[in-house]
Design goal:
CATH superfamily: Carbon-nitrogen hydrolase
Largest sheet: 6 strands, mixed
Domain CN hydrolase: 1-239
Order of helices and strands: EHEHHEEEHEEHEHEEEEEEH
Oligomer: single chain
Mean pLDDT: 96
Number of domains: 1
Low-confidence stretches: none
Number of strands: 14
Keywords: Hydrolase
Pfam family, one: CN_hydrolase
Strand content: 25-35%
Family: Belongs to the carbon-nitrogen hydrolase superfamily. NIT1/NIT2 family.
Structural class: alpha/beta
Helix content: 10-25%
CATH topology: Nitrilase/N-carbamoyl-D-aminoacid amidohydrolase
CATH class: Alpha Beta
GO molecular function: hydrolase activity
Strand order of the largest sheet: 5-4-3-2-1-14
Radius of gyration: 18 Å
Number of helices: 7
CATH architecture: 4-Layer Sandwich
Length: 265
């Protein structure tokens, strides 16, 4: 299969409507791709906290409309990164959108782990509650977002849900770029799954982004890695390698569940 990760540059200077049109054009240019991935919160910026509320949109809003049309034009699966979702009955959410090749929105994933501790996403957005996978035919996709990479229990749950290919859009800052690379490879090795991690480039909300989008195979080998600037990273691989790696090195059958709490001495 062929996957394209669109490492979009996000800046405060570019109006969201213009960036939306530019992103749609980049998706449409990926003719022949089976899967295209965009970064986290690219319409407004993952660190543009002050703009989130005004930029929030419903699941059938302008970003979803543009992305659905782009996916249908290419005939590919499109993980359109995430948007600030406006829930009329609740808070705003950091919500990923997955489109099928016919343009149908088939899955959404509200980010479970919110970054910021006592500020930003952690206080401005609601937390997702659902583990989300999707059978794309060529592989079962497991959905996670950015800060989720730091929580291996989520990825183990995605593994238990059948995931073979883990898709992780992000707005990961440059100052923690080494963590990004290390954690993406660790999740691939732990779950014996492909990891497709698509980050933003540029600077928004005063925070320089790392770029360095990465594709890792189930053995932890880096198949492709982007630089720090806007780039389309395209790679071809065989999704069946996930099952093959699990058969050749069946580490998951040795998992111990329900390990008792440590004894106090």
């Amino acid at each position: 299969m062929r996957a394209s990760l669109i490492q979009l540059a996000v800046s405060d200077a570019e109006p969201p409507a213009e960036r939306r049109a530019r992103a749609a054009a980049l998706v449409r240019a990926q003719e022949g791709a089976d899967l295209v991935v965009l970064p986290e919160l690219w319409p407004v910026g993952g660190f543009a906290y002050d703009a989130w509320s005004a930029a929030a949109e419903p699941l059938d809003g302008p970003t979803a409309e543009a992305m659905a049309a782009a996916a249908k034009a290419v005939g590919c699966w499109l993980h359109a990164g995430s948007i600030v979702e406006r829930d009329p009955d609740g808070p705003i959410y950091n919500t990923s959108l997955l489109f099928a090749p016919d343009g149908e929105l088939v899955r959404t994933y509200r980010k479970i782990h919110r970054f910021g501790f006592d500020s930003g996403e952690a206080v401005a957005m609601g937390a997702g509650q659902e583990i989300v996978t999707a059978d794309a035919g060529f592989a079962v996709l497991g959905l996670a977002t950015c800060y989720d990479l730091r929580f291996p229990e989520l990825f183990r749950a995605l593994l238990d849900g059948g995931a073979e290919l883990l898709v992780v859009p992000a707005a990961w800052p440059a100052r923690r770029a080494e963590h990004w690379n290390l954690l993406a490879r660790a999740r691939a090795v732990e779950e014996q799954a492909f990891v497709l991690a698509c980050n933003t480039a540029g600077t928004h909300g005063g925070v320089e982004q790392a770029g360095r989008s990465i594709v890792v195979d189930p053995w932890g080998r880096v198949l492709a890695e982007a630089g720090p600037d806007e780039q389309v990273l395209t790679v071809e691989f065989d999704p069946a390698e996930a099952a093959k790696s699990r058969a050749e090195f069946p580490v998951h059958r040795d998992r111990l569940l329900g390990i008792p709490a440590p004894v106090q001495r």
